[in-house]
Amino acid sequence: LEAVSIAPLGSPSAGTTETVSVLVRDPEFAPIDDAEVQLVVTTPDGEARRLSATLADAADGRYDVPVRFDD
Is residue 27 left, alpha or beta, with left meaning phi > 0 and alpha meaning psi from -120 to 50? Predict the structure, then answer.
């Protein structure tokens, strides 16, 4: 178990938007409900996009961000 983990995605199709979920925990693995969570998504053409996730479930420290999977 890691302090920060990203839930596995299926196989997103080009042109769809999928939710990326990140679990954030402290050193004792208790959920953190006040983290600042940012992801950098790199597109196939090399463009890096910085996205901010928002708290989705305080009980498990889950933060979600919608990510568009372009062609």
Answer: alpha
Half-sphere exposure of 39 (CA within 13 A, CB side): 20
pLDDT in tens, 13-67: 888 999 999 999 999 999 999 999 999 988 888 999 999 999 999 999 999 999 9
Q: Give burial (CB, 10 Å; 0-12/13-18/19+) of 69.
A: middle
The reported pTM is 0.86
Measured CA distances, 34 to 1, 37, 54, 59 (Å): 20, 9, 10, 12
Q: What local confidence, expressed as pLDDT, does residue 10 receive?
A: 82
Beta strand pairing call for 48-57 and 37-42 = antiparallel
| CB-based burial label for 2 (10 Å; 0-12, 13-18, 19+) | exposed
